[in-house]
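Duplicate of #3305? Posting structure anyway:
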């Protein structure tokens, strides 16, 4: 400051600022800058104020100039970094935070912000390190404990995450956010009662807190209370500023209950787009793609599931078998927990783009700069999708495929890939914003993990009784499924059923509810074997060594579980449904040459299970020959599958050129 009068004016401005009188404070800061345009303190405080009042673009040049005038002030770099983060410029923000920390190593707020950015980009070790340093310097920094809860949870350190969450809540017991993040850690740990209690407490404090409402729905869903979960999914959707992905959770959950007609389900998807997709203000941006008909095409695949996830079992063959002479492949990975599968996929002949932590508008620009010809969504309305990227139409041709059993509801999505088994012509076309493209033979091409164990002998040969089984997600096992499975058990004396899933059955109340529903159907709990998930995937798969016949779920069939079951030699009884989610079993079994295992109604389902159970020698022979049968089927013919899809891509390109 140049004189005592200006110092007093600055002190007055800061006092007004800190007491919430921001209009008066802003006027005083501007008065100081009129007297001295290079007053760095007034400049950076004005920048801070404009950022705090929702004007980060106005704040940016003020803070940048303040840093130029006084580059040795750590808090200047800190505030500039905060604004850059608000403006979705994370790399530049991180640079400013690093400069601030170099100037002042004991700066917990900077370490907090660095931890948040590291978390956003999936750099979990660095995030945890920064956050732990922050709380070591300032143990009552509640926000750091809250983010530490999330980062430890994402790293699978669930007990540590709960401990951090409890510390966060102790520091801010009336914070809906802190309660919600602790609840999520409990949820991941399988402590559903504790999770539900945290979410309900958060909603008591703030009934309009959408994150708590949506996560309460998630916890109810996981604890096998799908009807109640739908209530809270709908409630979260009705709240202001609902996250589009919370709304997508509702759409996914609706498929688990056969309560909506196809037309009603379609309207639910259209509503998602109406709520979350902003109408374009300008004419659609042209696509400058080279319009040469026969040139190599650029295909882009967008997914959060380039990891050990169900989607990877079906996309890897396609990525590995694309013809590099005709197709240049780009993978846009939004993968939050990369693993060995991620590394393997990235090593294929593809251009790998990591879009984790990059906001939708920036991803749109990345795709446009790559001049992708055909952009393929592999997630639909599942977790961490990027449908709002597709809504901006970054590529001239856009396709949804594989990850979701229904329409996206987006006008900007041109096509959806399926086959004639899963979507018979004329059945569901009118319930899609996309044009259905039925791939030749099959829409699924499975890659069995090479580490899967060998097929075992028929378990019934040793036990003397048939063991039915299901390894599907617990939420797919609704009361109607249990009623039909109970009919199967009653029709096969001495039989039992083994139910195992990766999450949910470790929770005792869920086990009790499941056994109670079987008991109501006259099935003694000694005939129902419940198995909780295990950490090692191979131990999970070895469960098929105990199963003679698998029973599919409805109205939402298994997909990966059906393929795993068949590969392990276990045939699957499926019930043909009316729409895609309930007809995947029809597609897989038809393409595997196992038509006799497809039931057209409930009575037929029971009859197939009963008759096949009475033919143990036939079951044993089918089990021994199953892998050879699959290896000859379209489901495992990766080369043909890739050529078929490439032919479709080429036809779609020609159609676009003619439009």
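Output from current build:
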């Amino acid at each position: 400051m140049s004189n005592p009068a200006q110092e007093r004016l600055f002190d007055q401005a800061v006092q007004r600022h800190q007491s919430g009188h921001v209009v008066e404070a802003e006027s005083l800061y501007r008065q100081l800058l009129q007297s001295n345009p290079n007053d760095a303190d007034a400049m950076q405080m004005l920048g801070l104020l404009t950022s705090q009042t929702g004007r980060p673009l106005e704040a940016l040049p003020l803070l940048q100039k303040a840093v130029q005038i006084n580059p040795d002030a750590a808090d200047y770099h800190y505030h500039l970094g905060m604004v850059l983060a608000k403006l979705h410029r994370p790399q530049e923000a991180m640079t400013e935070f690093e400069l601030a920390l170099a100037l002042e190593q004991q700066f917990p707020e900077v370490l907090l912000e660095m931890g948040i950015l590291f978390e956003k980009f999936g750099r979990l070790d660095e995030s945890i390190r920064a956050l732990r340093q922050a709380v070591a310097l300032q143990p009552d920094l509640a926000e750091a404990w809250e983010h530490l809860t999330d980062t430890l949870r994402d790293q699978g350190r669930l007990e540590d995450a709960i401990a951090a969450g409890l510390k966060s809540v102790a520091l801010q017991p009336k914070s809906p956010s802190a309660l919600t993040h602790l609840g999520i850690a409990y949820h991941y740990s399988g402590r559903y009662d504790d999770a539900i209690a945290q979410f309900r407490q958060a909603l008591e404090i703030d009934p309009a807190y959408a994150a708590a409402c949506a996560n309460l729905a998630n916890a109810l869903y996981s604890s096998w209370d799908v009807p109640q979960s739908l209530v809270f999914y709908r409630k979260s959707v009705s709240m202001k500023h609902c996250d589009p992905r919370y709304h997508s959770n509702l759409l996914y959950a609706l498929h688990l209950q056969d309560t909506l007609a196809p037309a009603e389900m379609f309207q639910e998807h259209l509503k998602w787009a109406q709520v979350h997709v902003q109408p374009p203000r300008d004419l659609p941006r042209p696509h400058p793609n080279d319009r040469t008909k026969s040139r190599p095409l650029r295909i882009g695949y967008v997914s959060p599931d380039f990891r050990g996830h169900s989607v990877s079992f079906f996309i890897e063959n396609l990525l590995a078998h694309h013809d590099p002479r005709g197709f240049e492949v780009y993978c846009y990975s939004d993968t939050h927990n990369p693993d060995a599968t991620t590394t393997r996929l990235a090593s294929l002949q593809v251009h790998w783009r990591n879009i984790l932590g990059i906001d939708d508008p920036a991803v749109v620009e990345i795709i446009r700069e790559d001049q992708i010809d055909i952009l393929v969504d592999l997630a639909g309305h599942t977790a961490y999708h990027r449908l709002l990227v597709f809504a901006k139409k970054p590529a001239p041709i856009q396709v949804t495929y594989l990850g979701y059993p229904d329409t996206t509801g987006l006008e900007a999505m041109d096509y959806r890939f399926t086959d004639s088994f899963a979507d018979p012509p004329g059945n569901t076309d009118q319930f899609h914003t996309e044009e259905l493209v039925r791939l030749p033979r099959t829409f699924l091409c499975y890659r069995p993990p090479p580490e899967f164990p060998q097929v075992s002998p028929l378990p019934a040969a040793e036990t003397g009784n048939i063991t039915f089984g299901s390894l599907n997600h617990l939420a797919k096992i609704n009361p109607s499924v249990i009623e039909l499975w109970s009919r199967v058990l009653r029709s096969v004396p001495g039989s039992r059923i083994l139910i195992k899933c990766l999450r949910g059955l470790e929770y005792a109340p869920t086990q009790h509810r499941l056994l109670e529903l079987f008991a109501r159907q006259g099935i003694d709990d000694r005939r129902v074997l419940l198995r909780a998930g295990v950490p090692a995937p191979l131990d999970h798969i070895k469960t098929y060594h105990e199963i003679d016949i698998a029973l599919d779920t409805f109205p939402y069939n298994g997909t990966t579980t059906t393929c795993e079951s068949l590969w392990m030699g276990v045939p699957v009884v499926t019930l043909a449904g009316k729409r895609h989610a309930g007809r995947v079993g029809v597609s897989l079994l038809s393409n595997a040459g196992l038509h006799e295992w497809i039931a057209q109604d409930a009575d037929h389902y029971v009859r197939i299970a009963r008759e096949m159970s009475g033919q143990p020698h036939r079951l044993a022979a089918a089990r021994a020959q199953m892998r050879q049968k699959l290896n000859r089927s379209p489901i495992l013919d990766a080369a043909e599958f890739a050529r078929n899809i490439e032919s479709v891509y080429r036809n779609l390109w020609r159609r676009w050129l003619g439009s």
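Confirmed duplicate; merging threads. The chain has a mean pLDDT of 95. The CA atoms of residues 381 and 511 lie 29 Å apart.
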